[in-house]
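Q: Hand in one record:
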Amino acid sequence: MNELDSALLKILIKDARISFADMARQLNVSRAYARARVQALVEEGVIEKFTAVVNPEKLGKTISMFVDLKVSPQEIEQVAEELAALPEVVSLYIMSDLRSLHIHTLTDSHEGFDRFAKDHIFGRPEIISVECNSLLKRVKHRRGGARL
C-alpha cells in the first residue's frame, strides 16, 4: 500500500459514498484509476465492507455502558459468543489476560440496561465479577478501523 492508497482510504473513511469522480479529483488521478484502486483494496481484503454509520440516539438508544467481566477462562469463548449475539451489544473484546471481556452496550434506558444485565450477566456462575460504567461524554470517536 502506498501514499495514494492511504489518501484514498482516508477519503472513504470520511465518506464511503463519494463518487469515483470526486475521489479522483481530490487525489489528482483519473476516475478509472480511483475505481481500480478501490476494487483492488477490496479484493486484497484491506477494505472489508462499505456500511452505514447509524446515530443510535436517533433510534432512542441513549444509554451507552461499558461493561468489564471477569469470566472463567474455560468458559470465556462461549460467554463471548452468547453476549456478542445480543442486540444490545455494540462491541465485545476478549482481553489479553484471557479472563476478561470488555463490552460496549447501547440501550434505550437505564431500565433497559438493567434488564439486559439481569437476563444475560447476573446469576451466571462462569462470570466471576462485573464492573460497568456509563458513558458521560464522547470526546473523540474514530470510525473506519485503524488510523492511517
In short: The helical segments are 3-14, 20-27, 31-43, 76-84, 110-120. The two ends are 11 Å apart (CA to CA). The beta strands are 63-71, 89-94, 100-107, 127-134.
